[in-house]
Amino acid sequence: MHVFVTGGTGTIGSAVVAELLGSGHTVLALARSDGSAQALEGAGAEVLRGDIAQLDVLRAGAARCDGVISLAFGRDYDSADGLERAVAEEGAALAALGEELLGSGRPLVTVSGTPWVPGRVSTEADPLPTDGPVGGRGRSVAALLGLAAHGVRSTAVRMPRTVHHRGEGGFAGLLAERARRTGVAGYPGDGTQRWPAVHALDAAVLFRLALESAPAGTAWHAVADEGDAVLDIATVIGRRLGLPVETVPPEDFGPFGPIFAMDQPASSARTREVLGWRPTRPGLLADLENLRP
């Protein structure tokens, strides 16, 4: 397939582009800067200049390709308003891409997060939340999956709280960044809450499988580690950075505080059974040993 990819230079996106190219697909990738364009061209992708706020550019990219993987998401996480804007921007982009593919039968794969289910491990059958800090994302993804009834092979790959590579990325990466800034490897609550995780290179394989074969209107879990205790994550970060490990109030993590404090393990049993996905890369705690001071 010739695949249009947005967000192709991030931790997930760069792995997805490499996985697609390495599996015989060709890639048209959205690039909003010269640096992104150079990185994508260096990887072997064709470049389309623009960003996810330019809906006409997104439609043009989708029209040129046999399928779409949408990964782009805003980077302003320092405030609740910034997170809200990023969610709204992503929703508009997904709607534009979906409209372009109506009636075509072509695949459109997007990304979301694994759901939180009180008292148990979440599964692929659980709906995404439609309220709270990222509720708008759940509504956008639900609308996209609804396009399965209108000739779009729409699917969602739900990502765990940490997508890691070489010790960086995801919620664990945010803890490490904060530790470097503050001099404390902090964690919210008592640290017993669990975060699921996956290596970026394993996640990339699942995106390819979803693009190639997932049925329309389905959701899948890119979960390798069902749930690592946050205290264990912070302990490795503290040891690698030479910093004390301490609990800190959830509000110190800004808009992510309530999410960070949740116990949110997730399963990928159905994904492995149906799509044949088998993660093979190091788990989160092992990969954090690559964290640099």
Automatic annotation (TrEMBL):
Classify the source by domain of life. Bacteria
Start and end of every NAD-dependent epimerase/dehydratase domain? 3-215
InterPro entries in the record:
Epimerase_deHydtase (IPR001509), NAD(P)-bd_dom_sf (IPR036291), NAD(P)-dependent_oxidoreduct (IPR051783)
Membrane spanning residue stretches? none
Show the Gene3D superfamilies listed in the entry: NAD(P)-binding Rossmann-like Domain (3.40.50.720)
Query: What's the name of the protein?
Result: SDR family oxidoreductase
